[in-house]
Specification:
120 residues, mainly beta, 7-stranded mixed beta sheet
């Protein structure tokens, strides 16, 4: 059973930076994708960025392009989300996620989440 544990959230001022980490255990990294989702108060959880672990190919939603960078360290079974130029609208609980089966785009595994709060 795959387990995902996030860390790195916190409180930061607008314009600041944070780096989130997601450590995976219980399954070796392969061709499947991992992603970061976020859920703001009163909103549904939504995809922010994803990365295919085998190729390193990435995807970002338009709102974070140029500010966020998703990366992975396959040797450490860890995925990162570097967040720069943070905006108050980035405030949310951030969740690490993994595809249950490669190339499906269906994220079956989620971590417990880490809070990111951006103050003005």
């Amino acid at each position: 059973q795959l387990q995902l544990v996030e860390s790195g959230g916190g409180l930061v001022q607008a314009g600041g930076s944070l780096r989130l980490s997601c450590a995976a255990s219980g399954r070796t990294f392969g061709a499947f994708s991992m992603a970061w989702f976020r859920q703001a108060p009163g909103k549904e959880r939504a995809l922010v960025a994803s990365i295919r672990l085998s190729s390193g190919n990435t995807y970002y939603i338009d709102f974070v392009k140029g500010r966020f960078t998703i990366s992975r360290d396959n040797a450490k079974n860890t995925v990162y989300l570097q967040m720069n130029s943070l905006k108050t609208e980035d405030t949310a609980v951030y969740y690490c996620a993994a595809e249950g089966k490669a190339y499906t785009g269906k994220y079956d595994y989620f971590g417990q989440g880490t809070q990111v709060t951006v103050s003005s």
